[in-house]
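Suppose you are handed only these lines of text.
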Amino acid sequence: MRKRKFSRSSSLFKRVRRAIPLASQTFSKSHLQYIQGQAPLFITRGKGAYVWDVDGNKYLDLVNALLPIVLGYQYPRVDKAIKAQLKKGILFSLASPLEYKLAEKLTRLIPAAEMVRFGKNGSDATAGAVRLARAITKRDHILACGYHGWQDWYIGLNPRNAGVPDAVKNLVHRFEYNNIKSLRALFRRYKGKVAGVIMEPMSVEEPRGDFLQDVKKLAHKEGALLIFDEIVTGFRFALGGAEEYFGVVPDLACFGKSMANGMPISVVVGKEKHMKHMEDIFFSFTFGGECLSLAAALATIEEIEKKRVIPHLWRIGRMLKEGTHELLEKHGLHDFIELKGLPPWHIVAIRPAAGFSDLEIKSFIQREMLQRGVLWTGSHNMSFSHGEKEVRMVLNAYDKTFRALQDALRFRTLRSGLGGKPIQGNYNVRAV
Ligand SMILES: Cc1ncc(COP(=O)(O)O)c(C=O)c1O
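From them, the structure of the protein bound to pyridoxal-5'-phosphate can be written out as follows.
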């Protein structure tokens, strides 16, 4: 195996960090998620399932830009739609009919969607839905379960919450997934004050029994709105998101990430009786309705429908999930490494073992996977460009990586052999 070098990534990182704090725009794409000096930090291009870094190394990408790349990089049909729109213009001084075309499609596909409003980031959609729930109910408190973006209303629940006023932090409270009692306790504590319950309908844990139905019933009994954050589950679990997959329809829902194969667009959807109050609140921005993203979303969703992309994500994801699990068993690692989540998006969950921390073990796996040509941060973000060949390639890399891990644990060389500072944690505190 030719040893991959990251010298350009490392030197560029030093320069970029002088101009850009973090040297990235996103925590999960930054050096904090990669083993220091042993990983690429900048990508120059992507095609299909593969990306190339600034040192010229090629990788099979399991990250897919944190999930938006649902079809693949430079996907012909989507790129063609973007180029065709580019010839007409990017952004106009009035609304474009494309907004209506996409809105009609979404109202046809998503169970909760009778009306829709677009944003750019997932955080626009969740912040808009929360503001709407507050405006409709004339209440202030929000009960949340999952990760919902970078805005003040939510970030009080995240350990990295400097800069958020206490008055705002005190209005949001976390309940536990699959623990209806934790939600009930919060409703008791903030009786008559809760505007909405916002949750990822599923993150990496599956709903037990009637958990989602029970949340909906309880929220409605207490006069609060139920908001599903489908930023991850949307256009992956089913065309209509987790609400279609689990058969529980919320009052409002937020979609983003996978809806435009990488172009920046998100959407708040909901029942007409709620969404019409969007006209009363402030939800408005210069780049709302930007046309390249609308055209990309239409092409992406049409392609997902036509090519039966979602069954593919399930099938190929299941192959990878099951194959990885078999290899963990083969190498005796399954006691502390397991796969959690559903096939279209699942994670490799690691617990500390043999005196090494979870992040040290994760760093070791990452270094070995990168050396074998897989861009890896501990999740399997499946795309339509991942075929059986790609799954075989990942499993082959895991087989060798797990064997090396087994040795590093047995001979206690894991820490000394890392070759760089380990990964420094994840800032998206999820529903686990
Ligand atoms: C479930 C969920 N909600 C909301 C967001 C925020 O989306 P964005 O980063 O596009 O603002 C994310 C981002 O990872 C997410 O995973």
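What can we learn from it? The domain at 91-289 is CATH 3.40.640.10 (Aspartate Aminotransferase; domain 2). The chain is about 40% helix and 15% strand.
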